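Help! Submission page says 'invalid entity' but I think these are all valid:
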Amino acid sequence: MGDLFRYEFMVHAFEAGTMIAIVAGAIGYFVVLRGSAFAAHALSHIGFAGATGAVVLALNPIVGLLAFTLGAGVAIGALGNRLRGRDVTIGIVLAWTLGLGVLFISLYRGYATEAYALLFGEILGISSTDVVVTLIAGLITLVAIIAVYRPLLFSSVDENLAAARGVPVTALSIGFMAILAVAVTEAVQVVGVLLIFALIVTPAAIAVRFTSRPALAIGIGIVLALAFTWLGLTIAFYSPHPVSFFITSLAFATYVAVRISEPIRARMSRTTAQKATA
Amino acid sequence: MTDQPAIVARGLSAGYGSRRIWTDANFAIEAGSFTAILGPNGSGKSTLVRLILGLLAPAAGHIDVLGEQPRRGNPRIGYVPQGSYFDPELSVRGRDFVGLGVDGHRWGVRLTGTAKANAAIAASIQAVDATGYADRNLGRLSGGEQQRLLLAQALVGVPEILLLDEPLSNLDLRNQQSMVQLISDVARLRRLTVLLIAHDVNPLLKHIDHVLYVAQGRLAMGKPDEIITSESLSRIYLSPVEVLRDSQGRVFVVGLEEEVSHPHG
């Protein structure tokens, strides 16, 4: 284990990865609760066009990524959480922006490695400046989630009821998507645009199968996201294969294991209950 | 208890844009009374609820709720919205949902007053007899269990008015009866004014003091046995309405629904 932190790039990867996992685990709970998994996925893809566009303009790709995810996030938020056909609209925009991304890649020659990093993540190449930016952005995201926690939970569970109690549901919907946009932008550094689900959606989706207590579910989601990130980084360090493969595989394997064990666990608790009554 | 009515409407009209849904309503809801709001689909029952909640401004006239203008988020009103049943995949504990009735509208997280909030939540869950399943996942509860927790959520803020938009519509007959009994008991105990929107007046007949009819652009209020008669409904709505009674005292109103599928104007 001592080898792991001998290299600066591994220290950076663990620092940024830890912050991102905490943010992803926390925001992921609301993504699952609000049924916005597809919106989260779409944000990252739309961000890809922004990132590649920024490179063409000789800007930092993260700036373009953030600008596009934020813009798309606000637009999706304004569409409302319960609107029918929302996913179709998002999908149409998503397809077009991916097309834009392809154009931008072709405009910038010698760009394949940068595009690869955006699509699949490049946590091992993160600089010390990136780490500081990630920590600050992560802290802002966490503070924002805490600030809107109760009304966001309320409007995610029953929007009509929350509106009647004076919760500004539309503003919250937009605010939530803006927070999600920042979280997605951060997470892209670790797992890339294509694999964002593994960090934002999977840990929370597992957590809600264990508990229906919101605060506990967020806690479990964060712990899982941290475990996938730390384990993924550690395994990747000792292997020739990419980090994002290990993080996504750990997330997937855990999810499958939980789903498969569910009927077994249910039967076991039934048997225990029967024994108790007998 | 004062003699002041809980809700007063004078020359009240409701609508969206230039479209009027109903006009010139005049009624007073006595404090501590139980009123059933009846009428065909799309007649504007939920619009009345939105006016009382302050979510919609009157198109004309005045409405007073507990002596003041309706305002959004009024804590003196406990509310259960229409069609509130939860997705089976929704993983939120009943107890946490009821807790949203305490302070779900406030920013941030609950840092102080946790013990007081938990006591209020437990008392409210007890009041609707839901202690046995309050710690289970909301989405996995039956319709009747969900309605009880919705009621607990409405009661937890110690309201003076209970506004229930079709709380019986997804329940079987037995559950309807026990739900109405529960609402009636809780309301009497806490001296609440209850307004309950329903499709069928029959499960309510034993418990209600008044009926507020919303149909064909007009509102009419009265005691159930005075207003639910062929003569008075025909007079109010200027069209032949027939009220039938069966051997068990159940009433059936015929003639209001049909008119609505061909709206005038």
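Support: the input was valid. A stray whitespace character was the problem, and the output above is from the cleaned input. Chain B touches chain A through 31 residues (CB under 8 Å).
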